[in-house]
Model the fold of this input.
Amino acid sequence: MSNSSSMAQFLLLALADRRELQLLHFWLFLAISLAALLANGLILSAVACDHHLHTPMGFFLLNLSLTDLGCICTTVPKAMHNSLWDTTTISYTGCAAQLFFFFFFLGAEFSLLTTMCYDRYVAICKPLHYGTLLGSRACAHMAAAAWATGFLTALLHTANTFSLPLCQGNAQDQFFCELPHILKLSCSHSGYLRKLGLSGFGACLSLGCFIFIVFSYVQIFRAVLRIPSQQGRHKAFSTCLPHLAVLSLLLSTGVFSYLKPPSISSPSLDLALSVLYLVVPPALNPFIYSLRNQELKDAIRKMMTGCFSGARTFLSSSAEHSLCNPLLFQATF
Done:
């Protein structure tokens, strides 16, 4: 009987059995990862460089892009490596690190989305107090609290999970190290109790955030409906749509993945749902926010125009210098 102290590695679920499909998954994950890295990188650069985006929402959006990058960099590179080299192994330490960072970034992202809901509530329901309630120090404290929540959640889940004796083999029915599949490998009664405790803790924390979000949006919608002009109502709603879209995408895929009935559970369905809530949102979130935020679009366009203009100026000056330099001109012939 093996336990966690003697286990050297875990076996993950292969994305496909055929080599052609494995390579297809590799290129698909690579494309999605590059899109997520490029889109989130543009948002990070735009918010950092454009002073018009140095607002509470811009600050929270910068932190959200960091969590999206962290989420997709935690699990996707290992899945791409396994697909490319036709392997399914991950080391014990690598699995623990993957689980920790998965909960860290996911917990921080959900906490940030809750904080961004408060930002929308203050902006629409208490606009005269916006600068007071969401000053730079308050925003920094709320962002730090979101990251700390993610860290404590990750530390609690990882420490409790990997302190259990694992004696049901080392094969997981998932392409990355996920908490329910690791707990299935435990054979102790305390493991079942810890599973219930961790699930209860996560459910209570998520439920508290969800209740706060629902209460905030009820107040927001009531305030918006009292706006006399239709144009004002549309503008107020449009500022909330990106946040609602990102939040709905994360909650719908994650909740259904973890709370779906056991009767419809299968490895292929679990795999598809995991890709939906783990890989797709980090790639889509920047597009959702940039499509509805004119200031962000203008900042990205301005930044890209400046980069292209600088590159064009550099190439033109280099070409002019090479033509004006007789030695270099002679060397080219």
About this structure: DSSP finds twelve helices and two strands in the chain. The first strand starts at residue 9 and ends at 11. The beta strands are 9-11, 89-91.
